Amino acid sequence: MTIRKHNPPKFERLKDPLLSRPQFVRRQFRYISFAVIFVGGSLFAGICGYHFTENLAWLDSFLNVAMILGGMGPVASVQTTAGKIFSGCYALYSGLAVLAAVGIMAAPIIHRFLHRFHIEDKTKP
């Protein structure tokens, strides 16, 4: 039985040609899919946290978490000590999570732009 190593996603190097448009679209779809899964996991963790620390209904927990992840702030007031600690930690986490998700989705686009810019720059005398 062979152990298969996980190969991290690689971008083309400076001397490599630019990816074709279909290959780039596949790469972008993979990165967007990862960001959606990451945000979905963050939603799920937040929903469970509010449900179990504040005894909020599942739908109210979802609303609270979606509003925090969207940057609007919580809807339901937090009553318990555990809920307040969770709410503060989740608010700090969600600010970073949204930035990370945007960075994940933007990475292939920024890389393609910079790669194309360097290819064009290399061809000039």
How do you describe this structure in short?
By secondary structure, the protein is mainly α. The protein has helices at residues 21-54, 58-69, 81-123.
Average predicted confidence as pLDDT: 87
Number of strands: 0
Secondary-structure arrangement, i.e. CATH architecture of the domain at 39-123: Orthogonal Bundle
Number of helices in the DSSP assignment: 3
Description:
With 125 residues, this protein is mostly helical. It has a domain at 39-123: Helix Hairpins, CATH 1.10.287.70. The protein is elongated and about 60 Å long. It contains 3 helices and no strands.
Features:
Helix Hairpins, 0% strand, 125 residues, mainly alpha
Topology, please?
Layout: H1 21-54, H2 58-69, H3 81-123
